[in-house]
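Design request, tokens follow.
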């Protein structure tokens, strides 16, 4: 089961200054330090693919929660281009089309929204990584911010190294 902080990508929480508080049915309750406009509500509902409602909390409370849940971890990797674009992958929404893996993706570039898919052909350098990622429930059951991918790849590479070491040591083991 996901922790409440994992119901919203870190970059979205920080950019829009919202903190997930609780889930009531399919509705996510978010705390904010200001009155939320309709555009922000619509954007969040679309990004999260669920109903959202807001409660107001003090600015220092929001800041403390953002620091504790998102800024203090290594989960958020700053975008070096410092532009207003962001992309998300939807690993649970994937399929095979011939020999390519197709993963739904969407994002924002400035105030323009886009939606589509990312294709990983057999010879794509990230195909093995994505084959692994879609099998891991922790990652495949949530929306992944594109800035999380480098951290997840580091985890995957550690997993691969351990698996390779275990396989090598298993070959020379006792019968």
């Amino acid at each position: 089961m996901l922790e409440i902080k994992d119901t919203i990508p870190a970059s979205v929480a920080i950019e829009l200054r919202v903190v997930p508080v609780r889930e009531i049915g399919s509705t996510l309750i978010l705390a904010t330090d200001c009155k939320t406009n309709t555009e922000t509500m619509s954007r969040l509902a679309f990004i999260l693919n669920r109903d959202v409602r807001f409660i107001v909390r003090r600015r220092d409370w929001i800041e403390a929660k953002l620091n504790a849940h998102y800024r203090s971890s290594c989960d958020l990797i700053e975008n070096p281009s410092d532009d207003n674009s962001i992309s998300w992958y939807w690993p649970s929404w994937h399929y095979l089309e011939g020999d390519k893996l197709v993963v739904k993706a969407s994002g924002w570039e400035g105030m323009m929204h886009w939606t589509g898919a990312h294709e990983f052909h057999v010879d794509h350098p990230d195909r093995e990584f994505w084959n692994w990622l879609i099998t891991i429930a922790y990652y495949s059951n949530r929306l992944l911010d594109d800035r999380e991918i480098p951290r997840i790849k580091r985890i995957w590479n550690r997993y691969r190294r351990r698996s390779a070491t275990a396989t090598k040591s298993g070959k020379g083991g006792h019968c």
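Comment from the thread starter after seeing the answer: thanks! The longest helix spans residues 149-171.
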